[in-house]
Amino acid sequence: MELYIFDGSLEGLLTAVFECYTRKSKIIKLVGQAHYVPDVFDAGFHVVSDREKGERVWKGLCAKLGKEWQLRFYQAYLSERPEAFQHLLNFARYVIDRPAGASENYAHPDVLAISQTARQVHREKHRMEAFVRFQKTGDGIYYAHIEPDFDVLPLVSEHFENRYADQRWIIYDLKRKYGLYYDLEKTEEIELGAAPQLSVVNALPAGLLDPKEELYTLLWQDYFKTTNISARKNTRLHVRHVPRRYWKYLSEKQR
Amino acid sequence: MYERIREKLGILADAAKYDVSCASSGSNRKNENKGIGDAEGAGICHTYTEDGRCVSLLKILLTNHCIYDCAFCVSRRSNDIRRAAFTVEEVVELTMNFYRRNYIEGLFLSSGIFKNADYTMERLVRIVKKLRQDERFNGYIHLKTIPGASDELLREAGMYADRMSINLEMPTERGLKLLAPEKSHSEVEKPLKYIQNNITQFESEKALIKSVPKFVPAGQSTQIVVGATTESDKEILYTANAFYRNFSLKRVYYSGYIPISYDSRLPVIGSQPPLIRENRLYQADWLMRFYGFKVQEILDDLHPNLEIDVDPKLGWALRNLDRFPVDINTADYHMILRVPGIGVGSALKIVQARRFNRLHENHLRKLGIAFRKARHFIRYADSPMQLKEYEAGHIKNLILSEGKSKYQSNPDNQLSLF
Ligand code: SF4
How far is the CA of A223 from the centre of ligand 1 (A)? Predict the structure, then answer.
């Protein structure tokens, strides 16, 4: 077994696949720089991310994979999980070495693991599309922040662009310290110098908000309460759909 | 000012909550005008109420004034409650402001009947028209048809709404006459038919001319109240089935009756809504829509009611043991779909994966089937030798004892689909 260490980027991961073929490595253990603990007995091979090598691997994969699997590959990568990186490397080699269609073999451990991880990431993307709560600022920008388990911002931008084409908005990932800003023309990645300090109902300090913002938060909270049918109360079901870890970002859960 | 709008929202959301339809999917309205909103693809549940229902649309009444007196309805004339009515502008503003903050997918607008049907319907139409034209809103709009409204207004409404619906309320004419003597099923059928004909007509024009406007692109639905009157599940499902067929409905909703009235014709206040029964009806409905079951296979004169202790798919399998076991490695897709514990997703994966390997137990477990339930009905590559064939009652007991937590000690009465 050979140890490969890469920088954690997608380009790095694809480069690692490339190196497996040039170095004729058989069994690889792939670790991200962030998780690598130097070992006296096994120095490991440091993969140097390389755009051209990465692209060649991606092209090779695309030739074998349908659109859906290309997306799954990317989604699994965005899970940021160390074991997903390993599965992605194994999966890429498995697919490249076989005729197209091999990715449908759900009984294969890497195929299965990636399809499951991709599904989790997809689910979280979907939850973010649901749970983002914008607040309108004094300058008319709709602002929201999130802290997703996986790095899903790249997956949600299209959704919000299509939906909110006529308003400027920011969605900020507090955990990864970057966000998306849509300015009516295009969406860009941004970093906020000092991420606003946040209580949730007023994610932004009241002074920055549109004067009507408080009313709409209240109306939404009222609506959430009145639309409930207490004769049907079912907390277990409620929590299954709205996991507690998201509550602090949901204005309707703040009362 | 704040207080008045909060009060109205309180009253008019409270009165609308008994309508259980919630879907915001099935439309194809895209944001093509650089306006706001997108109702294409699957809808999103933005939150869930504490009773576990999805909140996807702002569901409100335009007013809870009503000239009718249907016994099962909070807005009925004889009920002593506070009344309120939104203005057209208020509904538009609420919808837009909720939508812009990503609280909702759109609007579900219903109303009590004030003055007369057309007077009310005309206001509903003004709201949707304003949303589409002035606000360039492309989100989802579900509009409740007011019984007795004129064809012209229905047609105009259909030009702006994504879905329209009109409730059957009671599963049979007999039940409806008992609680709402002024109403009839035929007055539901007439607008359903009218809208359906228009949908078909617009569709056929679309084949010829590309720029035909959308007309109720997400189709129609209806709601049946369960447990207010004495109809059997068979009567309910056969009615639903007939409406699916005759009016090409997208959905039938089943709403377990929640007592809200001291009327002696109705269950007393405080009695539990029939939640398990409601859930069984949804499961049976899924079997008809996605699993290829005919309604006659699910219920007949010998079995007029769905069982409480087993879901309808398992119930069917136990009554038809001669169709089992099903060989996972060779059976056709439709038969795999009929195995208890195997859903649409895993059935598809099974037929894909078996092209590569003969499937063993460990594969099946990983593919996400409910193996402990399914194993009584299937054969696979490493099936244990079966010494004797179990009979139905025995299998049922095995499944029930293994799944105890799910079927018995379930205080909140909510079950998952299969
Ligand atoms: S007509 Fe509709 S709103 Fe009026 S009482 Fe009957 S069900 Fe209620």
Answer: 22
